[in-house]
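We both want to read discrete structure tokens more fluently, so let's practise on a single case. Would you supply a protein for us yourself, any chain you care to pick? Would you write everything just below, so we can both look at the same thing?
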Amino acid sequence: MSNAALFLHPNGYDTTGPSLLGRHAAGESFLRGFLRHAEVDRYHFWNVTGRPQAELEELVNRIEPPRKPIRWIGQARRHELSDPGVLNVPSPEIDAEAWQRAPHGARHYALCGLTHTTATATVMRLIPDLLIAPTEDYDALICTSSAVRDAVETQLSAMRDYMADAYGPRRRPEPMRATIPLGVNVDDFATTPEHRSAWRARLDIPDDAVVVLFVGRFSVRTKMNPALMAMALERAARRTGKPVYWVNSGWIEPAAAGPGFHEETRKLCPSIHYREVDGRPADVRFSIWSVADIFISFSDNIQETFGLTPVEAMAAGLPCVVTDWDGYKDTVRDGIDGFRVPTVTPRPGFGADLATWFANKWISYETYVGAAAQYTAVDLDRAEAALATLIDHPKIRRSMGEAARQQARDVFDWAAIIPQYQALWTEQRARLAAAPPEPTRRQNPYRPDPYVLFAGYPTRHLSRHDVVVLNPGMDWPAAHARLSGALAVYSRFNRPSDAELEVVIQALAEHGPMPVAKVIELIPTGRRNFLERGLIWLARHDVVALHPGG
């Protein structure tokens, strides 16, 4: 099975920050699953941020102690990604990575990206840009659900039509698209009688009460409107005549909206015993499932693409009542693992005003997705009936919960999903090996060499025929003192080392003026471009003079 280097940016995997997003939980879960189940002889981690290695090692060990050796690839050592030959990026931004790869050669390695939220302005820009960037047919974008794959294909199709009209038939390859769901580590969500008793005691819930659980971020505009769940639960509680407890485990964004969020939700379900829990701590995230008998999540927002919490609920053995929406369609089997409640939105063509206002930045992202969600309706009759069935019938709850847990283990455990990643990487490696030689290496037009882009600024450019002359009174101690001053070292980016500069100063002192071409031969090949550029720094601070050659 093929391996891949993981693009190890802490923001893609760390769930301990103040803002916990779905992509953080998904990234942490993936990394834990990869470390547990990948059939590899070692792990390849690319330290793309240049963080201290010990910091990243602590993050990895906190998530899952590695069982195989780790090879760390330094921030600036992109060329080392040729082994293992695939770079796995925890986001859809492989267009930017393709441009970064281009100067090193597109045949160096393949790219594998992943969709999360696809409704932001940034992602809606980069999806069409996959057809402009130097992506290849051995690159891939993983879509986490059939719904989000449809959305990606819709954008690509529109961009393809535009390019065909403007530039003629398409000749460039396109990255593959593969549908692979997010996963869970099923055993992490095992419920226990001890946790159930502890949570019920903590929340003052009777042992025999029916508890419905929601887990997720509390945001009316960007996540889901709790009104839909509240109204359905209120109707179900009145229909059954039984006491129903609703535990909301999550967190508010923004925090200032907290009191209003819960107060307004309570007003819509006065018969429901309402409980709030901060869902961010790790001990809560993995134990809160034990409190519940039923899981509920009425996603209504286009910011969602997969929806991980229903799968986590299935892993915990809970029957789910969810909306028939986005990735939920691929996870909860209606009538088997729980119930999917029908949804309805305006037909295509009725959102052009939203698109225009968002494109012009007249409304924020929060307003854009919130306004779209405002026109998503849920079949409350069906929701009431589904909840009432589960509230009234413990046997149905148990049978559906058992089916859900088995489905989670068979289909959504990382033990089943990591092999799909490795199979995709194997196909990418095969396509990469079969690709013809690259005719030319491309430069990145979005980030050109500043000395290319601004070549018209100076009087002239340094030539290797130019002559380097050590200025009178200069030796290494004098040069070092000058070059160490605060006005000389404000930027330390890729300068010649002190040892290299000392060699140059001594050579000029002993042998007199030398052409640039001879000066740079004083140090190893891989450092010569840095030294040639550094000679101008020496001249800038009056250590040497540079005279036109020829």
Q: What stands out?
A: The longest helix spans residues 146-167. The mean pLDDT is 93. The domain at 186-412 is CATH 3.40.50.2000 (Rossmann fold). The first strand starts at residue 5 and ends at 7.
